[in-house]
Design brief:
elongated
């Protein structure tokens, strides 16, 4: 069929062979996908869905999918496949790599969203990315760190930094998200910060009695 230029039938029979784990059929699909053959690439995603792709080939497949999306190719099936793995299958590695695509496309909101999903699963590259961005002053990322803290997904050594972000956000930007966060916390660092807020009127009116009680 390939020799006769009947690509539809070629793919159909190659797919049947690959379902039986016939390696030359896999090789053919990957060769075509690397040539930007969208039909071959989509067939590989279908093979993945029915657990006919091994771990080594999974990495190759996802790399091709990421590159396809980055290059602004517009077959929505490929991005839907990646999104499904990121959200429905909760694959932390896919979440991280999908976030990097959004970052490259300057979509910071979606970048943060998917980095957060990966960090919730203790994916250290995503966790490190969030802290790097927080250190550069991104207040939305800083708030995401408070959410990770509530979930018990932050490192002990990072707690002081997170509460410093809370202090700055409340004092200098009156960001009520951080004030609500510290009000929920019963640990010493949060109680001390809350007392300071009441004493100086950061994020709320001055209340010396409440500050004294918390101190």
């Amino acid at each position: 069929f390939e020799e006769n230029k009947n690509i539809t039938s070629t793919i159909e029979y190659m797919f049947l062979a690959a379902k039986q784990r016939y390696q030359p059929a896999y090789d053919w699909f990957f060769n075509q996908a690397n040539k930007k053959d969208i039909k071959a690439l989509f067939s590989l995603t279908e093979l993945f869905k029915i657990s006919k792709i091994n771990q080594q080939d999974k990495s190759k497949l996802f790399k091709i999918c990421y590159q396809y999306i980055i290059n602004n190719n517009h077959d929505k099936r490929i991005e839907d496949f990646i999104k499904y793995q990121a959200i429905k299958q909760n694959d932390a590695e896919v979440q991280y790599n999908y976030a990097l695509i959004f970052e490259e496309n300057k979509n910071i909101t979606s970048t943060i969203e998917y980095m957060f999903l990966a960090a919730k699963q203790s994916y250290h590259l995503a966790y490190d990315w969030l802290f790097t961005q927080a250190a550069q002053g991104n207040i939305d990322v800083q708030f995401k760190l408070t959410e990770l803290f509530e979930l018990g997904k932050t490192n002990k050594k990072d707690e002081k930094t997170i509460f410093n972000y809370c202090y700055d956000a409340i004092r200098y930007q009156n960001d009520q998200r951080f004030f609500k966060f510290i009000r929920k916390m019963t640990i010493t660092e949060a109680q001390y910060l809350l007392a300071t807020c009441y004493a100086f009127g950061y994020g709320i009116g001055i209340n010396y009695a409440q500050a004294y009680q918390l101190y």
